[in-house]
Amino acid sequence: MSGLINHEKAFISLFNETARYHRRAKVFEDFVSCSVIALENRFCFNQKREDNYLQIVKGYEKTDVSRMAQLLAKVSMSMMDQFSDFLGRVFMQLDLGDKYRGQFFTPWDVSRMMAQISLGDVDSVFLDKPFITLAEPACGAGCMALAYADVLNQSGYLSHHHMWVSATDIDPLAAGMAYIQLSLCGVAGEVVIGNSLHNERRRILYTPGHYLGNWSARLKRKQVA
């Protein structure tokens, strides 16, 4: 846990140095938006997304654009050390939760315990199926999906091969945070900005793991079967 805390402190320290001429909520939202575009365009380039990225960074000094890239690198390093709801935690530590859209995120330990209970005996889960699908109708920053992935990995079943996730949130910021974290952890799936209660899907973001694992074909074969 000490390593995670150190990563969080480093992220928060750098974030507090970034674009002090903007509100903290705006800087965080722009960091998330730019990170999502960078990750999306790496595997499926879209000029409209790139233009949106350029429009956002126009409002920042070059040093602060560089700092945003460094912030994403710090999230990545933390995720390489251990899975966690890193962005959800720093979001709350930055006191953005009660000031911006009333966001509050489930603690990692609680999510992981729930994933363990739900999966039970992991070996038995895959006796008659090659993979599972997980639907999260209000995913927040993706904590529950990450917890499932972590339990599978720790049980010897690589999550990018044995699980596909559909994570939905009505808030674009939360969905963006989920997309970043699921992407960096190699989780295969889609992150949907929309309203699960009304089956509304305004925007769909596919993680790099979705493309790398050929999941479109795998899901089609499952439907046919």
- On the 0-100 scale, what is the average pLDDT? 93
Helical proportion? 55-70%
Total strand count, please?
A: 4
Describe the global form. Answer: globular
Number of helices: 12
The secondary structure category is alpha/beta
Order of helices and strands: HHHHHHHEHHEHEEHH
User: What is the CA-atom radius of gyration, in angstroms?
Assistant: 17 Å
Task: Describe what this molecule looks like in 3D.
- 60% of the residues lie in helices and 10% in strands.
- It has 225 residues and is α/β, with parallel strands linked by helices.
- It has a four-stranded mixed beta sheet with strand order 1-2-3-4.
- Strand 2, helix 10 (172-184) and strand 3 form a beta-alpha-beta unit.
- Helix 1 packs across helix 5 (86-93), helix 2 (24-43) crosses helix 10 and helix 6 (108-119) crosses helix 8 (143-154).
- The longest helix is centred in the N-terminal third of the chain and has 20 residues, at 24-43.
